[in-house]
Design brief:
The chain is an alpha+beta fold. The chain contains 10 helices and 29 strands.
Length: 500
């Protein structure tokens, strides 16, 4: 048999070409997958499982244009005019004013240097229409000093607006457009978003109305130190000055949050924004529209977090619940028998995670409703019936007391000098060693020691006796109840050097 070398060479070339073609295809496929962070072991690209494909389909393949076209007519620019000049010295910047000024702080501290600022002239923010007859949701800090409010729609139409109601505690406000027209509107989402869900922010940053940015829900339940009801969504969609009061949408075109604050060391967006959840907004807005104000439940206590030191002093196995540092006279708490030193662990069977959690739960309860409040008192668990009252004015409210120092003490030295108070109620702290443990725990000159381990103290000798008795009993810490002006708080002090 005679071989045709030309034919063989030709066939070999064809085979080689086919192999080369497959190799190139494999390399291209590998390169494409490599660009998306995926790798494959062979030149065959596996198909996506049906479940994974359904998850991917949740993200818009052609962008967010359809969604934006749907919601844009409902998002408004809020232009505010002030008629008076009111210069003031701000000692602490509210997180709700981040869109107006920015700090250079860190962590959860949001502060600015004291300075005068003018309240005259104009300001702008954002908002969104929630009803066909023209009710608009925005931030309280956008309209709180307004003498005139003008709302501008995406199509350029402008309307005068009336401030229906404001709630400084959640920084929400409701406006009503002065028009008999029918408006397009959006709904507040009935379901809370999950961390990682898409979010689309629309607003009026720097006066540039109709601006759209996208991102995801970065976290939920954020406490940024703005008040006792903090429960913010954190989003990374770019928001800036002027976005205040604007909506954050899910992919169904529902509002999941009201853009309210950002954290920024530089003054611009760094991808950390905060929005009031729709669940909070719905309740507040309903009250503002129907009554012009918000009615909240009231317990009437001063509360603080239970630290590890305080838990040991109270005989708790672990830090849990929230500690009552003071009880308002005539309050529902006093009538129910709650006392300073009690630790509230649950309300109607729902565990209390801390002061903020208790404040939110109580505020959301209708006045007049009776609750089962579980407490721990001197190591014993009890359940008290408490009829919730109506929250009074701000001058009578009990606040959340922040711990003065969270560092674990290293020495058992107290480092303070005391004397009996003029009225005989407690011991006044006259001197504090700046290097002593008392100073490190936040005890200051002028504080009054009211109790030690639940025992009333009215003389230095009594304090010494209680400390010696606690030390002999093997106690590691003692729990002091301090009064500073009109506030009370607990401080745990060590009796012996801690083990390293």
């Amino acid at each position: 048999m005679t071989l045709n070398h030309k034919s063989v060479s030709s066939n070999s070339a064809n085979v080689q070409a086919k192999r080369s073609s497959k190799t190139v295809a494999a390399l291209v496929a590998g390169a494409l997958l490599g660009a998306t962070g995926l790798t494959i072991a062979t030149s065959i690209v596996p198909t996506q499982p049906a479940k994974a494909e359904s998850v991917l389909n949740r993200a818009p393949r052609q962008g967010f244009a359809d969604l934006v076209e749907q919601v844009m007519p409902t998002v408004v620019s809020v232009e505010v005019r002030f008629s008076q000049i009111a210069n003031r010295l701000d000692e602490k910047m509210s997180p709700m004013e981040f869109f107006d000024r920015f700090s250079k702080g860190h962590g959860k501290e949001f502060r600015s240097k004291p300075r005068k600022r003018s309240r005259s002239g104009r300001a702008s923010g954002s908002g969104f229409i929630i009803s066909a007859d023209g009710y608009v949701v925005t931030n309280n800090h956008v309209v709180k000093n307004a003498s005139e409010v003008v709302v501008k729609l995406a199509n350029g139409d402008e309307y005068q607006a009336k401030v229906v109601g404001k709630d400084p505690k959640t920084d929400l406000a409701v406006l009503k457009l002065k028009s008999k027209k029918t408006f397009k509107f959006v709904k507040l989402a009935a379901k809370d978003p999950r961390v990682g869900d898409w979010v689309v922010a629309v607003g009026n940053p720097f006066g540039l109305g109709g601006t759209v940015t996208t991102g995801i829900v970065s976290a939920s339940g954020r406490n940024i130190g703005s008040g006792p009801y903090d429960n913010f969504l954190q989003i990374d969609a770019s928001i800036n000055k002027g976005n205040s009061g604007g909506p954050a949408f899910n992919l169904n075109g529902e509002v999941i949050g009201v853009n309210t604050a950002i954290f920024s060391p530089s003054g611009g967006s760094v991808g950390i924004g905060f929005a009031i959840p729709a669940s909070t907004t719905r309740q507040i807005v309903a009250d503002l529209i129907s009554k012009g104000s918000v009615t909240r439940g009231w317990l009437g206590v001063q509360i603080q977090a239970v630290t590890k030191d305080i838990a040991r002093s109270l005989g708790l196995k672990k830090a849990r619940g929230t500690l009552i540092a003071g009880v308002n006279k005539g309050s529902p708490a006093e009538k129910a028998g709650l006392k300073p030193g009690d630790t509230i662990t649950s309300v109607n069977g729902n565990n209390i995670k801390g002061p903020q959690d208790l404040a939110r739960k109580i505020a959301g309860i209708k006045p007049g409703e009776t609750l089962d409040v579980a407490i721990v008192r001197k190591g014993a668990e009890k359940i008290l019936k408490v009829e919730i009252g109506t929250m009074p004015g701000a001058d009578k409210l009990a606040g959340v007391i922040k711990p003065q120092d969270t560092d674990e003490p290293k020495l058992a030295k107290l480092g303070l000098a005391v004397e009996t108070a003029e009225d005989g109620r407690g011991l006044v702290v006259r001197q504090v060693d700046p290097d002593g443990i008392a100073a490190k725990k936040g005890i200051r000159r002028g504080d009054v020691i009211v109790e030690v381990d639940g025992i009333d103290i009215d003389a230095p000798e009594a304090l010494k006796a209680v400390l010696e008795r606690s030390a002999k009993a093997g106690r590691e810490t003692v729990l002091l109840l301090l009064r500073s002006r009109d506030r009370q708080r607990f401080v745990a002090l060590p009796l012996k050097k801690e083990r390293s």
